[in-house]
Amino acid sequence: MLYSYFFNRKSIWFFCTEQISLITSNAIYLYGILGDVERNISLGQLRRFSWRELQIATDNFSESNVIGQGGFGKVYKGYLSDNTKVAVKRLTDYHNPGGEAAFLREVQLISVAVHRNLLRLIGFCTTSSERILVYPFMQNLSVAYRLRDLKPGEKALDWPTRRRIAFGAAHGLEYLHEHCDPKIIHRDLKAANILLDDNFEPVLGDFGLAKLVDTKLTHITTQVRGTMGHIAPEYLSTGKSSEKTDVFGYGITLLELVTGQRAIDFSRLEEEEDVLLLDHIKKLLREKRLGDIVDGNMKTYEPKEVETILQVALLCTQSSPEERPKMAQVITMLKGVGLAEKWAEWEQLEEVRIQQFSLMSRQFMWAEDSTHDQEAIQLSQAR
Questions:
Q1: Residue range 289-343, pLDDT digits in tens
Q2: Residues 63 and 130 grouped into a single domain
Q3: Is residue 94 in some structural domain?
Q4: Best exposed site among 1, 182, 194, 242 by fewest CB in 10 Å?
Q5: Do 57 and 150 reside in the same domain of the chain?
Q6: CA-CA distance, 103 to 312, in Å (whole number)?
Q7: Secondary structure of the chain: what % helix, strand, coil (to 5)?
Q8: Domain with 209 in it: what CATH number?
Q9: Phi then psi dihedrals of residue 286, to 5 deg
Q10: Domain annotation covers residue 282
């Protein structure tokens, strides 16, 4: 059975506060704290599943069917009565404001965000103790799986596919930022949250961490969410998120695509390399070691295309959010348009940053040596 759903667009910002949902035979209305019903917008045609349907589909939520686990719950593989293969996301602790808000947010998001590179929501289930979301099953799982967790006999992603993923993710993110009103901030973009369909076309998933932003309101968030190594520095230090924090995460994801490596890898310490992938790549580029950057599982690649994507990645991951491009600009630069000028500016700024860091390091070492000398003088004096 199909239902039509309606949400109050203006109450998006109050999802983390107390709300009451009234479910009728064909509509959902969200009541604010004062009980007022505001103007409603259509959520589109979503299927409302019964608890029993999803129990049967997942073999009573068997652990053997778990295909993923995130901050808001587990994801199960399942089969509907018509044999459609689905991914069933069972939210945990929905009474917790974060869990409840995640459910409402994901349903709200799908009503305003429909794009070929965004994961489509099939339907949902609500009971007195459960909140569940149902998505199409992505046969080729995630980009992270294809980069790092392949089983014996499975083929690694080739360069044309990785490049297509870079473009598809950019288009999906650009849609969220520029074509949704209010704009949508993903807040946890990484290889693990880019899923691949039967044809290895990328779709952005896991909107449980996404943030709807009214451009007239502040970007300050009450809690930093995301994955270390992908979180923009200003978001981590101030809690302020914007589309530029997503641009940073996208840049790190590009580095994952090229290298096949994780954003943070402590094993690099054994070789006296940088733990952060971003710093590691900058060092290798300064040393002109492109061959050491590219994933060894790729047998062939186009060096010029790889350089283009690396340059775009570093432009996206600049420390200052104001210096990062918008996603619309990212798409044009991926095509090579306007990239040379931006890259030349980046190289000049990077040279200045390196010089400043070197000077600070020398000053620190000088201060440390001076302290040791002073201690030696004091110890040598007569007592």
A1: 999 999 999 989 999 999 999 999 999 999 999 999 999 999 999 999 999 999 9
A2: yes
A3: yes
A4: 1
A5: no
A6: 34
A7: 45, 20, 35
A8: 1.10.510.10
A9: -60, -35
A10: yes
Give the model's pLDDT for residue 46. Answer: 80
Q: Are 297 and 325 found together in one domain? A: yes
CA distance 188 to 257: 16
pLDDT for the residue numbered 352: 84
Which 8-state DSSP code applies to residue 127? -
Instruction: Indicate the residue type of 377.
Output: I
CA 95, chain centre distance (Å): 25
Is 183 annotated for ligand binding? no
CATH code of 21's domain:
3.30.200.20
Q: Is residue 298 in some structural domain?
A: yes
Asked if 26 and 149 sit in the same domain, the reply is no
Q: Is the distance from CB of 330 to CB of 316 less than 8 angstroms?
A: yes
Shared domain for 211 and 125, answered yes or no, is: no
Q: Note down the domain range covering 61.
A: 2-136
Q: Which of 207, 117, 115, 243 is nearest to 168 (CA)?
A: 117
User: Do 200 and 164 touch, CB atoms closer than 8 A?
Assistant: yes
Query: For residue range 199-247, what is the model confidence (pLDDT) as tens digits?
Result: 999 999 876 555 444 444 444 444 566 677 888 888 888 888 889 999 9
Q: Which two tokens stand for residue 320?
A: 């200052």
Residue 32 inside a domain? The answer is yes
Give the Cβ contact number of residue 159 at 10 Å.
19
Residues labelled as active-site residues: 188
Confidence at 38, pLDDT banded by 50, 70, 90: very low
Spell out the residues 6+ positions from residue 257 whose beta carbon is closer than 8 angstroms to its own.
143, 147, 162, 165, 166, 191, 309
Tokens of 288: 């002109």
b/e burial code for range 230-259 (CB count within 10 A of at least 16 → b):
bbbebbeeeebbbbbbbbbbbbbbbbbbbb
- 216 and 122 part of one domain: no
Nearest alpha carbon to residue 66 among 102, 97, 92? 92
How high is the pLDDT of residue 124? 85
Count of the separate structural domains present in the chain: 2
In terms of domains, do 114 and 177 share one? no
pLDDT at 303: 94
54-80 pLDDT, tens digit per residue, is 999 999 999 999 998 876 678 999 999
